[in-house]
Amino acid sequence: MLGETARRHRRDLLRLLGWSVLEAGPTLVSGALVAAALDRGFLAGDFATGALLLCCYAGVVVLGGFGARQAVQPLAEVVESLRFDLVSRTVRATLLRGVVPGERVDGRSVEGATKHTEVLRMLISQLLTVLRTSVFSLVFVIAGLFWLAPAVAWVSVGSTALVVLVLASTARGWQRRVRDGLLAEEKLSATASTTLLGLRDVVAVGAAERATRDLAVDVDAHADAVNRIGRVVAGRVAVLALGGRLPLAVLLLTAPQAVSSGVLTPGELLGAATYLIGSLDPVLRALVRVVGDIGLQIGVLLARVQEYARLPADPEPQATGSGATGEVALRGVDFAYGPASEKILDGVDLTIRPGERLVVVGPSGAGKSTLANLIAGLDTPQRGEVTLGGVPVTGLDRRWPRRSVTLLPQEAYVFSGSVRENLAYLNPDATDAELELACAAVGADELVASRGGLDGRIDSPGELSEGQKQLVTLVRAYASPAEVVVLDEATCHLHPERERRAEDAFAATGRTLVVIAHRISSAMRADRVVLLHGGAVDVGTHLELRTSSPLYADLVGYWNEA
Ligand SMILES: Nc1ncnc2c1ncn2[C@@H]1O[C@H](COP(=O)(O)OP(=O)(O)OP(=O)(O)O)[C@@H](O)[C@H]1O
């Protein structure tokens, strides 16, 4: 995931690297200039040279500050783009999994994904900020020390290697503990939010003690996990303290001997101490904090985000054929919303022929929308099966955009964006000519023209009336490649004449059209009508049902009066 963003921002990363070298520049010359200022200037009685050399150092520090300032912009480009990529991936994958039967997706999945992504953004920003200068600074310190005091440089290399070795060998255990801590925190927050949301029920059924006990278990588990992390942190801090201070201790202990024997001048001694105190120790600390702590936290969080960004599995292997003939069949379908709930559909058999215009009617709550969801594969029957072109609908290709069935619900969803983006939502490859054709067919051309054509904007969808929103979604469905279109009261806010025009337009394309009727006029122009009642279906033409079914005759009468 990170690699993809990094590839796109190669230039920004190179700019970041370049400015970071400049930012770390003062580290390279700090010890050397201090040593020269002392030996050739102040101790040699040449105050002007000493002061000039210190001024040079100050100049380099200002240049380093300029490098730090310039590095901010490329850093922000990379990090913000990374956040956008991560959020897009996780939300998209969560939504796609949401329409797959058997996948458990709720608001917490998206919330968890976005929360983790936000933390990741901050951590990666810190990682890049510290890492980019620390690595160069470390190299520069060692180089400076080799120039001034090679023996101290070797001790520094050894102690740095020791720190790296110890941290690397404990990295796995550390990562495991951080992950356990994160999981414990997630579990605690899930239990707490479930308990708090159902607080009234918990009190009503006298389960307060039980809920407290359950919560206490998760609180203890979280506390244990945090304690285990704390113990590892303590060990790592000790190693770091030893590794960072050892070279300085060696320098100070050997200083009298080294200076008196002429191995080091006083200036070189002070220069080496400047490198060690001013750079090596802080750099090692920063590196350990960043690579050891932040780096590992990033690894753990990325693994979690990757779980959220998991796309649903492709169709099951038994799903052969494209399902693209437009024939929908329900065989012995039973459906209920819960194991103890009443059946909404009870042993329903129904074949919808390719290119047929079928209208579904029935009393409120009879299960018309449920039938629409089953045809679209959004729900799975407990018994029997729903097939499309002979293939179980739940086994069809569910990659976005859905290619086989398009279901338009009553609530039309229009988002902020261009008119084109809204219309091409179910077929991003649609050409302008195809979209214009779809607009003309369903009668949305005036609306699109009034918004400034395909390039026009819909900045706040609330400006559109419900009918206008339904027109937008009708164009979407028309422009989609699906061979079966299900309109679940998707034209209820349109004038009857506009509704007829839209339905006729779909029927004229030769696709299978299933309309959950809002008005009796839809049933009157259908090839066949399905009357849904008490979990069963009666099927026939409008005239047949009118004479054979008293319930249908009642519904027609009710509609006519209305
Ligand atoms: N997600 C759900 N969970 C539990 N029960 C549901 C769910 N969705 C619908 N129901 C119930 O299932 C029954 C059928 O609902 P459905 O929406 O399919 O009926 P409908 O014929 O489309 O109704 P209407 O004409 O009022 O839109 C209703 O009793 C409804 O309350």
TrEMBL record:
In its UniProt record, a GO molecular function of this protein is:
ABC-type transporter activity
Which terms in the GO cellular component ontology are assigned? plasma membrane
Q: Which UniProt keywords apply?
A: ATP-binding, Membrane, Nucleotide-binding, Transmembrane, Transmembrane helix
Coiled-coil intervals: none
Bilayer topology annotation: Multi-pass membrane protein
Residues forming the ABC transporter domain are 330-559
Q: Which chain regions cross the lipid bilayer?
A: 16-38, 50-68, 130-148
Database matches in InterPro entries: AAA+_ATPase, ABC1_TM_dom, ABC1_TM_sf, ABC_transporter-like_ATP-bd, P-loop_NTPase, Type_1_exporter
Residue ranges of domain ABC transmembrane type-1 in the record? 16-286
Q: What's a Pfam family in this record?
A: ABC_tran
* UniProt subcellular location: Cell membrane
From the Swiss-Prot or TrEMBL record, give the protein name: ABC transporter ATP-binding protein
Q: Write down the species.
A: Actinokineospora bangkokensis
> Lineage of the native species?
Bacteria, Bacillati, Actinomycetota, Actinomycetes, Pseudonocardiales
